[in-house]
Amino acid sequence: MRKSKKVNAIVGAPDLRSPHRIAVDTTVLLLGWAGAQDKHVAKHAEIYNNKGFKTIMFNSAFDGKHPLYLKTSRDIDGLVPTLDSELADPGRRLLIHTYSMNGVFTLCTLLYHKRFIDLLKRTDGLTMDRRVTVI
């Protein structure tokens, strides 16, 4: 079995201060689809950044080509430190945006992780996109 690539989370800063109270205290967590590249998800993150939200993007190493590599979609080591740091502020809230089943797999892995068992208690919204067109 081939070794999976090391994947890290990417943090995006808001482009402007949002007049909306929710954007000030909220980070959008974008969990990419199988085979997604950072540049593809970054275009979606930019939409949130333009609205004043801070973003965290994460794409697992799973490329969707072979089911034996599905376990790579469960590797969240590159996301854990970034999410820990972001949630260190007890007032910080999340919006979660998952793309396709790979995003859902990543979210489920987070929820099974002891450190993030109560993640949904700090989540104000969850968007599940089922089909992504690369823009």
Supply database-style keywords.
single chain; alpha/beta; Rossmann fold; globular
Short structural summary:
Keywords: Membrane, Nucleus, Transmembrane, Transmembrane helix. With 135 residues, the protein is an alpha/beta fold. It has helices at 21-24, 38-50, 80-87, 100-112, and strands at residues 10-12, 26-31, 54-58, 93-99, 123-129.
Can you lay out the helices and strands and say which pair or pack?
Layout: E1 10-12, H1 21-24, E2 26-31, H2 38-50, E3 54-58, H3 80-87, E4 93-99, H4 100-112, E5 123-129
Parallel strand pairs: 2-3, 2-4, 4-5
Antiparallel strand pairs: 1-3
What is the general shape? Answer: globular
Average pLDDT over all residues:
82
Percent helix: 25-40%
Query: Can you tell me the CATH class?
Result: Alpha Beta
| CATH architect. name | 3-Layer(aba) Sandwich
Residue share in β-strands: 15-25%
User: What's the CATH H-level superfamily name?
Assistant: Alpha/Beta hydrolase fold, catalytic domain
If you consult CATH, what is the topology? Rossmann fold
Q: Count of helical segments?
A: 4
Main structural class = alpha/beta
Largest sheet: 5 strands, mixed
Radius of gyration: 14 Å
What is the chain-wise order of helices and strands?
A: EHEHEHEHE
Number of domains: 1
- Report the strand count: 5
Placed side by side, the strands forming the largest sheet appear as 1-3-2-4-5
Q: Between the first and last Cα atoms, what is the distance in angstroms?
A: 32 Å
| Low-pLDDT residue intervals, each spanning 5 or more residues | none
InterPro entries: DUF829_TMEM53 (IPR008547)
GO cellular component, one term: nuclear membrane
Subcellular location: Endomembrane system; Nucleus membrane
Keywords: Membrane, Nucleus, Transmembrane, Transmembrane helix
